[in-house]
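Lecture notes, unit on protein representations.

Consider one protein chain, 261 amino acids long.
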Amino acid sequence: MASPQWRCSRMIEIQSQMSERAVELLGLPEDRPCFLLDVGCGSGLSGDYISEEGHHWVGMDISSAMLDVAMEREVEGDLILADMGQGIPFRPGMFDGCVSISAVQWLCNADKKTHSPPKRLYRFFSTLYSALARGSRAILQLYPENSEQLELITAQAMKAGFTGGMVVDYPNSAKAKKFFLCLFVGTAGALPKALGAECADGEESQQAKFTNERTRFRNAKGKSVKKSRDWVLEKKERRRRQGKEVRADTRYTGRKRRPRF
């Protein structure tokens, strides 16, 4: 059985690797230092790598105990005690990028009766979008419990104005598989290539891209088919992803009703 000290060292090593990968995915310019936000910074392990790369950073975390550890370690970044579900408390366009390691998935949990996961996620993403400079990126590494959580997280990010998608490193490995939500501010860019995701002919790439443009159903003449069954089903599914209550689909969904006399 592994000792607690070995497990701690292993966790630190994994955290450092994910931090390095997140900063790499940011695609920062090499000719100047940048100002970054670390959401869920914990004890400042991610910040250590950011400092090593010559960048400046601010870390926020909901745990005062973890921030105390960061202060004892004398990290170079500034620290703030804050709940990301209540929003990013910084002025617009302040940061050149954002990283987050193993934190965003916690917003999917309702730890209090007053917590609404969709609302807290949207509050987080909308204020993060505002705090980032145009053309910058946010790289959020997360551990989703299921596909529903992934859909909820990406739907709220898209609703807040982000474009981008999910990059899955080492998708065929049970231990090394990592999810990185790559978000773009202002301009849509090409998703970075996932590690260990070389696809054979006919296989799907481990990348899921989305934009903030709504899907429009059209008929053969190119006109929007508003109120059609497909249009109604797509709208209901979009509302479900936003966490809203929607009536169940039936064979009568989207059916045109006869006029009343």
